[in-house]
Amino acid sequence: MTHRYLESIGSGCIVLGHAPVELVELMGFNPVVEVDWSAPADQALEILADSQKWQPHVDRALQRLSEVGDWGVRVGTIRATLEETGLLSSSLR
After folding, report:
1. Burial of 27 per CB tally in 10 Å (0-12, 13-18, 19+)
2. What is the count of structural domains for the chain?
3. Structure pTM?
4. What range does the domain containing 37 cover?
């Protein structure tokens, strides 16, 4: 998973493409509108023509990102992992 997914979701964008497994695991659902490779341009035009239909999906993804993806949460997870593995220096605790 690249950071661009988190940036896009955090910006309130409709993300059209394919979600990496790690993103789905982090979010607990697929926040990406899976692209229809048989007609991607038509799909994009349909989304643009009725973007309000997708607003609940965007809102859900943004809310979930604030729960699992902001830096406060991420630093806590990194710190806990370092402590569990014994890699965090006692001087930093």
Report:
1. buried
2. 1
3. 0.79
4. 3-92
